[in-house]
């Protein structure tokens, strides 16, 4: 056994109560709040230097000291992470921003950033001896769970609306997950998972309801810092649904600051949501600590169609602490932005496109200095969204029949 | 301008005649054969060590000394290459092979290995000042051309059968390529490109008809060598259509041998084709130097549905020189293999699945020692093949309706 993790304990994100990481944990029942892993950063300082990273494999496990897997043999990997950061020359020029970048999590197993969280959750589940992992999903998280569970030899129970995207359903089938299609919404799927927990001993790996998916998402922040040579961007725009990514990135930056690897200046984190489902934007504008349930949520960007995030108070905390913000964009703006990003060679998912639409708004409002380093986070590949994109004439078909 | 390329000249792969790499080149007209780039490897020995690679970016451009782009500012990159190598524990055990691996080129821009060749061809086209790139395509190569041309700001003309996969068409549209849909086969598309060359000054980037796509594919071999710590696998199974990949990998291994970075023992290269289109397999069995046109080519693995590869004599040369072989597999075996690979967490394209089906045959024939290091090459993501996989009940649907 090789143990390089410096994980120390889990703490409730509300009351601070401590929990053991050596047995399966879910949430703090008393507060109904997520648990967060805490590391012994003082000991990491002695064990790891920036220089050490150079020879390591180009995936998210290069940061193993800051990740929760104790025995490295439990790491379940399909080559996830260390996705590229690309400079957007043309768009930067158009928007008058000198240093505009995108990080592309389309190049990751199962084609979306969900792979990061599930690689971590499944690895930890393996370490803790869990045998049956379950989740309600809109599609992509389920596909990622199915893939990593297959690799780990653990049973996956995926419950999703029957109108979930074909590609995600197909992935779950072929990876060998037990798939339950529900005539209803993801909330109905959630009820079935609750039932399965009681009746069949399923372990629920819903986001923020177990403590490790957020650590997988944390690697997005660790990678950003390293890829920008430890000088983090001034602004990060992130499509926000459940918010695990924004919470994870902020956790990464704080840990790196404590290690002394980045300096005091942290990125301003900006949540981008859809006009059809913008609970975080509304709460932020009203300076509230928690969001309210958004009725009749509707947007083509299914990944940010989350009426009330379980960890909403943590998302809002990040926005306030970082001096960031929150903006809502329309579906039309999302489609336009997806086309603009494609003209830079990146075929993004609608959620990724939303960040560019959001940036335009922020620029218009004068909240960005043109010399600042701006990063858009693309959370998945457009390839998985043929159903969305092929219906939209806005994409600009230029086909001619010659024969 | 920063020039780290050690490119020296281009030579005809048949007659050895030299051509200048400083102007646009196509093929050797006299021999109707591909041109291959030749490097000054003696000078590379002084300029680059294995150790130098460690701190470099995790993409195919880390090998820039051995690549043909002279001014690094001409590199058109979307983060392609350095894709993961994964150990297949369960399948290895099932087949009685201790060291079975897969290299997964599903994690690459546009989801297939075509990105490597087109990143290189478009970069070199930019360097040479070409403005209009064209190709006939079954789909994936066209999507990759469209993506890199968009990034480079070069016009792309993609001609493809109207029944090409939806995802590839959509990619071409959104990347802004000029798309021509043809009511016919890829050979009809080829004729239209020929016409466009004459009438509109299109430059044809069909595989092996310009000298640089093969250099992009060469990076597959360079990466394999580095990722296996300069001890190359004993056997590599590769799905063979046009064959640029197998030719490129072999070129890589030979250059590395000349550099002294790997030793004399080279991998045995095995071409995997479909029973419905196996011209290379037939020629190999008959010990011929060239293949014959395969009538009525038919297979679900569209990427290996190539009735006669332009560079067939080079493919066969690799198989003979390496002491490798060639096997044909059925569509049924391909689908079964795709499922088996998915149960290891990797959702491959049908062409990638064919390599596992091929391996089973080779093992059965006793041509593999169980202690050998075997590598399957997956050339693309299954996500792009929903049309193929969703029609096949063999995939094993396990959906239940609960609501």
Low-pLDDT runs of 5+ residues of chain A are 393-403
> Rounded to an integer, what's the Rg of chain A over CA atoms?
20 Å
Give the neighbour order of strands across the main sheet of chain A: 5-6-14-11-12-13
Ends distance of chain A:
64 Å
Number of structural domains of chain A:
3
Order of helices and strands of chain A: EEEEHEHEHEHEHEHEHEHEHHEHHEHE
Major sheet of chain A, described briefly?
6 strands, mixed
How much of the polypeptide of chain A forms β-strand, as a percent range? 15-25%
CATH topology of the largest domain in chain A: Rossmann fold
Description:
Two copies of one chain form a homodimer. With 403 residues, chain A is an alpha/beta fold. Chain A has three domains: 7-74; 85-107 and 213-389, Rossmann fold (3-Layer(aba) Sandwich), CATH 3.40.50; 114-204, Rossmann fold (3-Layer(aba) Sandwich), CATH 3.40.50.1100. In chain A, 36% of the residues lie in helices and 18% in strands. Chain A has 13 helices and 15 strands. Chain A has helices at residues 41-47, 89-95, 114-128, 140-152, 166-175, 186-200, 213-227, 244-259, 279-285, 312-322, 331-342, 350-364, 386-389, and strands at residues 7-12, 18-19, 27-28, 33-39, 85-87, 99-104, 132-136, 155-161, 178-182, 203-204, 235-239, 268-274, 325-329, 373-378, 399-401. A six-stranded mixed sheet of chain A has the order 5-6-14-11-12-13, with helices on both faces. A four-stranded antiparallel sheet of chain A has the order 2-1-4-3, with no helix packed on it. In chain A, strand 11 (235-239), helix 8 (244-259) and strand 12 (268-274) form a beta-alpha-beta unit. The longest helix of chain A is centred in the middle third of the chain and has 16 residues, at 244-259. Chains A and B meet through helix 4, helix 5, strand 9, helix 11 and strand 15 of A and helix 4, helix 5, strand 9, helix 11 and strand 15 of B.
